[in-house]
């Protein structure tokens, strides 16, 4: 598949990255503060009006729908609206993946108050989101594959704070790849994951 | 377990709900606009400064950590920081669950640009989050149970927009309950889920 570049100019891509990265980090801080604030009602109301006005300014010119996917001239995929990795999505931590020559992929991320499920613990669905995305990236190295099934085994709660997730392909059978991974807190594994990922059938 | 009420006064609970609900909705709008805006760089920078100042005001007095769980005098659980259902968490859609006498639980939610994974589709991990939370609520009706394993079968992509999820307990064996559910778009089921939920052992 040939990727049609949306960012014809790499300088323009870099400029947007430098603009939107810090901007979205600021919105992430607001999301955290919205949960944790204990200031008086009148301050909440004043801040609410300020944010509504700021949002109206941003909406003066905007995309009709979601961000989707764009490509750089070098074929790099740009998914800035993505809920897992999106540079422009304040819901995304955002996840950043690393890998080595063996095919192992991993991510380190600090999950704060906005990712809470049971008191003091990461939401089980957020654990699933981190592992789903990591296993998908691991499975798609070289061949694009989509999630078929994902099985998560919750060994114990994952405390909010720094977590590490790692995954590797353990088998390939035709169009199916099996990927296994774990999520860990500093004391060890908290969630085990196994996914079956499937590459699309070749066009006839 | 006796719940210690944190909101001794129900009027105070209602007051806070009426204050923080609309406030957090305003922050959700900002998260959406942050992804979709196409305004000029100087407007982005101006809005960034405005939001940073607003966040500082909120942080003038705040909780040390995450929101955790509180209780109303009637024993109602208040998890306003929760990533799935949190009234004060702009990451949460927030999910609202309904149920009938048969034990079936369901939720209807509109997932917009902030929940994107593949272009135009809901992130697989967000599908997992909705189903994890719904199945957990379904499993915990009457008896508190925690997720042991969760298996998700992705039949096809789930388009962004209105989704419906439903779940029911299909079997109980000692401390284990098996719950099955589905996520659907208007055209039918997109993800099937099965979870094993476990109640804590009785204290010796």
TrEMBL record, chains A, B:
Q: Which Gene3D superfamilies match?
A: Hotdog Thioesterase
Position of the signal peptide: none
Look up the coiled coil feature and give its residue ranges.
none
Q: Where does the Thioesterase domain start and stop, copy by copy? A: 120-191
Protein's recorded name:
Thioesterase superfamily protein
Phylogenetic placement of the source organism: Bacteria, Bacillati, Actinomycetota, Actinomycetes, Mycobacteriales
